[in-house]
Specification:
- With 159 residues, this protein is mostly helical.
- Helices cover 52% and strands 11% of the residues.
- A three-stranded mixed sheet has the order 1-2-3, covered by helices on one side.
- Strand 1 (57-62) and strand 2 form a beta hairpin.
- It is elongated and about 80 Å long.
Length: 159
Amino acid sequence: MRFNSSNVSIKRHTPVGATDFLRRDDKMAALLPAIQRMASLQKDCAAALPAMFKYCEILAFEDGQLILSLPNAALAAKLKQQLPKLQDTLAQRGWQVHGVKLKVLMTKPAEIKEQMRSLSLTEAAVTAFDELGDTLEATPQNATLIAALKAMVAKRRPT
């Protein structure tokens, strides 16, 4: 039998499939409403403060007390300033949040740094560095600089 796309069936896993799986087991099915409630609350928090909730997670929500997990103290300090806005937005969406506690947990790495831009040199700049390497006096103090200039020029010019 030849292998082709017409005789192969691929089973795709979807969120609906996951909830169907949870519903089949009585113990898991009992957890489903709580999971859906927490997911809805996480979504509403993210809508209220999208930049903050990129790195935050809800740990618990019981008796009007919301407990949030943050990856570092700096983010916790920023979020603390935004708590009134968060509580107001959640109240408008029907959540009764009476208090918010923040817990700094280093559970997942927070990649908050922006990526550095990649800089490229023009051909004129590469030529200028090449000429600088040729014109520097060949002294022990300049040897490392000259070698670095030559290496940089060699990287940027095809041989």
